[in-house]
Design a protein that fits this description.
Blueprint lengths: L3 H10 L1 H14 L5 H13 L3 E3 L5 E3 L3 H9 L11 E2 L2 E2 L6 H15 L5 E3 H9 L5 H10 L3 E3 L5 E4 L1 H4 L2
Antiparallel strand pairs: 1-2, 3-4, 5-7, 6-7
Helix pairs in contact: 1-4, 6-7
Length: 164
Protein backbone atom coordinates (compact mmCIF):
# COMPACT_ATOMS: atom_id res chain seq x y z
CA UNK A 1 0.00 0.00 0.00
CA UNK A 2 1.27 3.45 -0.89
CA UNK A 3 2.24 5.99 1.74
CA UNK A 4 1.10 8.87 -0.47
CA UNK A 5 -1.72 9.61 1.99
CA UNK A 6 0.93 10.38 4.64
CA UNK A 7 2.53 13.00 2.38
CA UNK A 8 -0.90 14.55 1.70
CA UNK A 9 -1.82 14.60 5.39
CA UNK A 10 1.58 16.01 6.35
CA UNK A 11 1.27 18.78 3.73
CA UNK A 12 -2.24 19.66 4.91
CA UNK A 13 -1.13 19.63 8.55
CA UNK A 14 0.95 22.71 7.68
CA UNK A 15 -1.33 25.78 7.94
CA UNK A 16 0.49 27.70 5.19
CA UNK A 17 0.31 24.80 2.74
CA UNK A 18 -3.33 24.21 3.66
CA UNK A 19 -4.23 27.88 2.98
CA UNK A 20 -2.47 27.91 -0.40
CA UNK A 21 -4.17 24.64 -1.34
CA UNK A 22 -7.57 26.03 -0.29
CA UNK A 23 -6.98 29.17 -2.39
CA UNK A 24 -6.10 27.04 -5.42
CA UNK A 25 -9.16 24.84 -4.98
CA UNK A 26 -11.42 27.89 -4.51
CA UNK A 27 -10.02 29.53 -7.65
CA UNK A 28 -10.66 26.41 -9.74
CA UNK A 29 -14.27 25.72 -8.75
CA UNK A 30 -17.55 27.56 -8.87
CA UNK A 31 -19.49 28.17 -5.66
CA UNK A 32 -21.91 25.31 -4.93
CA UNK A 33 -25.64 25.78 -4.44
CA UNK A 34 -26.86 26.22 -0.86
CA UNK A 35 -28.08 22.60 -0.72
CA UNK A 36 -24.75 21.27 -2.02
CA UNK A 37 -22.85 23.54 0.39
CA UNK A 38 -24.87 22.26 3.36
CA UNK A 39 -24.32 18.64 2.26
CA UNK A 40 -20.58 19.33 1.86
CA UNK A 41 -20.44 20.86 5.36
CA UNK A 42 -22.06 17.73 6.83
CA UNK A 43 -19.59 15.52 4.93
CA UNK A 44 -16.60 17.58 6.11
CA UNK A 45 -17.88 17.60 9.70
CA UNK A 46 -18.40 13.84 9.67
CA UNK A 47 -14.83 13.41 8.41
CA UNK A 48 -13.56 15.63 11.25
CA UNK A 49 -12.21 18.26 8.86
CA UNK A 50 -14.44 20.99 10.27
CA UNK A 51 -16.21 21.56 13.56
CA UNK A 52 -18.63 24.21 14.78
CA UNK A 53 -17.32 27.10 16.85
CA UNK A 54 -19.15 28.47 19.90
CA UNK A 55 -21.74 30.18 17.69
CA UNK A 56 -22.28 27.05 15.55
CA UNK A 57 -20.37 28.44 12.56
CA UNK A 58 -18.28 25.76 10.82
CA UNK A 59 -14.52 26.22 11.28
CA UNK A 60 -11.66 24.08 10.10
CA UNK A 61 -10.22 21.62 12.58
CA UNK A 62 -6.56 22.69 12.70
CA UNK A 63 -5.32 19.43 14.20
CA UNK A 64 -7.15 16.87 12.05
CA UNK A 65 -4.19 16.09 9.78
CA UNK A 66 -1.63 15.91 12.58
CA UNK A 67 -4.05 13.71 14.54
CA UNK A 68 -4.48 11.43 11.53
CA UNK A 69 -0.73 11.01 11.16
CA UNK A 70 -0.26 10.35 14.88
CA UNK A 71 -3.06 7.79 14.91
CA UNK A 72 -1.56 5.90 12.00
CA UNK A 73 1.99 5.91 13.38
CA UNK A 74 3.28 2.40 13.91
CA UNK A 75 5.16 1.78 17.14
CA UNK A 76 8.78 0.89 16.57
CA UNK A 77 9.52 -2.74 17.18
CA UNK A 78 12.35 -3.60 19.53
CA UNK A 79 14.46 -6.64 20.31
CA UNK A 80 13.46 -9.96 18.82
CA UNK A 81 10.19 -8.48 17.52
CA UNK A 82 12.19 -6.63 14.86
CA UNK A 83 13.17 -9.97 13.31
CA UNK A 84 10.21 -12.23 14.13
CA UNK A 85 6.88 -11.82 12.31
CA UNK A 86 3.86 -13.89 13.26
CA UNK A 87 6.02 -16.23 15.32
CA UNK A 88 8.47 -16.91 12.50
CA UNK A 89 11.96 -15.61 11.84
CA UNK A 90 11.67 -13.09 9.01
CA UNK A 91 15.42 -12.40 8.87
CA UNK A 92 18.55 -12.95 10.89
CA UNK A 93 20.17 -9.85 12.38
CA UNK A 94 23.61 -8.86 11.16
CA UNK A 95 24.79 -7.79 14.61
CA UNK A 96 26.07 -10.75 16.64
CA UNK A 97 24.37 -9.68 19.88
CA UNK A 98 21.00 -9.30 18.15
CA UNK A 99 21.47 -12.59 16.31
CA UNK A 100 22.20 -14.33 19.62
CA UNK A 101 19.02 -12.82 21.06
CA UNK A 102 16.97 -14.24 18.16
CA UNK A 103 18.67 -17.62 18.52
CA UNK A 104 17.95 -17.67 22.28
CA UNK A 105 14.32 -16.91 21.48
CA UNK A 106 14.24 -19.72 18.90
CA UNK A 107 15.72 -22.39 21.13
CA UNK A 108 13.53 -21.28 24.03
CA UNK A 109 10.47 -21.50 21.80
CA UNK A 110 11.30 -24.84 20.21
CA UNK A 111 12.98 -26.89 22.92
CA UNK A 112 12.02 -27.13 26.58
CA UNK A 113 14.76 -27.30 29.25
CA UNK A 114 15.92 -30.88 29.90
CA UNK A 115 14.11 -32.08 26.77
CA UNK A 116 15.98 -34.45 24.47
CA UNK A 117 14.77 -34.62 20.87
CA UNK A 118 15.72 -36.63 17.83
CA UNK A 119 17.01 -34.71 14.83
CA UNK A 120 13.68 -35.10 13.03
CA UNK A 121 11.81 -33.78 16.09
CA UNK A 122 14.16 -30.78 16.28
CA UNK A 123 13.70 -30.17 12.56
CA UNK A 124 9.92 -30.34 12.88
CA UNK A 125 9.91 -27.78 15.70
CA UNK A 126 12.37 -25.45 14.01
CA UNK A 127 10.32 -25.66 10.80
CA UNK A 128 7.56 -23.87 12.73
CA UNK A 129 9.96 -20.93 13.15
CA UNK A 130 11.59 -20.77 9.70
CA UNK A 131 11.54 -22.44 6.30
CA UNK A 132 15.29 -23.13 6.50
CA UNK A 133 15.30 -25.20 9.69
CA UNK A 134 18.68 -26.79 8.88
CA UNK A 135 20.39 -23.40 8.90
CA UNK A 136 18.67 -22.45 12.15
CA UNK A 137 19.72 -25.76 13.73
CA UNK A 138 23.30 -25.14 12.60
CA UNK A 139 23.21 -21.57 14.02
CA UNK A 140 21.90 -22.91 17.34
CA UNK A 141 24.65 -25.53 17.54
CA UNK A 142 27.34 -23.03 16.52
CA UNK A 143 26.11 -20.61 19.20
CA UNK A 144 26.26 -23.46 21.74
CA UNK A 145 22.57 -23.10 22.52
CA UNK A 146 21.74 -26.57 21.22
CA UNK A 147 24.03 -29.58 21.34
CA UNK A 148 24.09 -33.11 20.10
CA UNK A 149 23.94 -35.66 22.86
CA UNK A 150 27.07 -37.83 23.31
CA UNK A 151 25.39 -40.64 21.34
CA UNK A 152 25.00 -38.24 18.39
CA UNK A 153 21.40 -39.32 17.79
CA UNK A 154 19.56 -36.48 19.49
CA UNK A 155 19.70 -32.85 20.57
CA UNK A 156 19.17 -30.92 23.80
CA UNK A 157 19.44 -27.37 25.03
CA UNK A 158 22.75 -26.53 26.64
CA UNK A 159 23.21 -25.45 30.24
CA UNK A 160 24.13 -21.99 28.88
CA UNK A 161 20.70 -21.75 27.28
CA UNK A 162 18.87 -22.77 30.44
CA UNK A 163 20.55 -20.03 32.49
CA UNK A 164 20.31 -17.26 29.89
Amino acid sequence: MSNQWRRVAAALANPDARRVYAELVAAETAAPSVAKRDRAIRTLATAGLIEPDASGTPRTNPTVFADLLAEAAQPRKAGVDRFVVDGRIAQYPARPTERLEVLRWAVGTAVAPDEVLTESEVNERLAELTDDFATLRRYLVDARLLERTPSGTSYARTATTDHA
